[in-house]
Design a protein that fits this description.
Blueprint: E1 2-10, H1 15-32, E2 36-42, E3 50-56, H2 59-71, H3 73-82, E4 89-97
Antiparallel strand pairs: 1-3, 1-4, 2-3
Length: about 100
């Protein structure tokens, strides 16, 4: 099993729109496909950066999952509709993590 830490920085002036897109479109699509979101946060400094952690069986499953998500017509429509005035995200970072064998809970 692996985890993916995703981090989105909103484009200037787009924090509310990005959060709304996650609430109205992204999170429902993640649920539709059964993606496992462990937790979800926004920064409290006013920038409203978005951070969340996903669980995947392996990197192949992660790639297949994101390919399926990006190919969904509902995602394409939501992305197009929410970006009529430009991109909502200034940056996206995805970090793949695995728990080391020496760590015990």
């Amino acid at each position: 099993m692996i985890h993916e830490l995703r981090h989105y920085t909103p484009a200037p002036g787009k924090a509310d729109a990005l959060a709304r897109r996650f609430e109205e479109h992204v999170l429902p699509l993640l649920a539709k496909y059964g993606f496992k979101v462990h937790d979800y946060w926004e920064t409290t400094d006013g920038a409203r950066e978005i951070w969340y952690v996903m669980e995947w069986a392996d990197e192949a499953a992660m790639k297949a999952g994101w390919d399926m998500f990006r190919d969904d017509p509902a995602w394409a429509a939501a992305k197009a509709a929410t970006e009529t005035d430009g991109p909502l995200s200034a940056s996206l970072r995805s970090i793949v993590l695995k728990r080391p064998g020496y760590f015990r809970r």
